[in-house]
Amino acid sequence: MPRFIKFVFTTIMLLFPAAAMAQQTIINVPSSDVLPYGEIILKQSNKFRPFGNGKYVSLTPQLIMGTGKDTEISVEAGTNIEDTTSVKLNLTAKKVFRIKKATRLTVGGTLSPSLTEGQKPDSMIYAHGSYLCKKTRTTFTAGGFVGGQGEMPSLTGVMLGVDQTIIPNKLRVAVDWTSRNESWGVFGAGLKIRPEPTTSITTAVLIPNSSEDRVAFSISISKYVGKVLPEFAKKEEQEQGENL
Fold this sequence. Notes:
Strand content: over 45%
Strand order of the largest sheet: 1-2-3-4-5-6-7-8-9-10-11-12
Largest sheet: 12 strands, antiparallel, barrel
């Protein structure tokens, strides 16, 4: 792995612990999917709440890149439009450990500094295990997190998820839940549709844990760009071969 990418990944993991779950997700909970080295996904996520006094629209472009050895980083800028407009930058990194063919352990974190408000960033560090039941094509995910709003992580919680394949490489049903009543505490349920091999569309309903918040909806479109750093990938393969 190139030194500058190692530096970026290490810096994010040590200094930028998560809130908005910027990497590949089930609905809101980070998934155990990870991109190979040098490959990129471009994603546009939109959330909106059309009801009541808490109406808002959130527009979030995102770039996800595989950094090798089952690690992944992503950068997104979320614009939230309510009575006023606010912008948050989410910097995320995760590492996936392949325990067995059907079992994975994922650890990661994100820092979410505001670009428009003078406040400390939100943060979260998480870890969860995922198990793929090949017979039913169902992935179960369970784990926990330590998060903080405008502070270093101090609040503990639980995250759960189920991802069910209906039509292989075409249609999946996904649900997940994150505990607590802060902004990340929400139940999400939706469909993942892949109209063609490099494009994925996710639609979902978001039900907050807090009774003071209202139901929201989300739709995201992901486009797989492919490998953009072939020369680095080749170098990494050579380094891995030398270590065998």
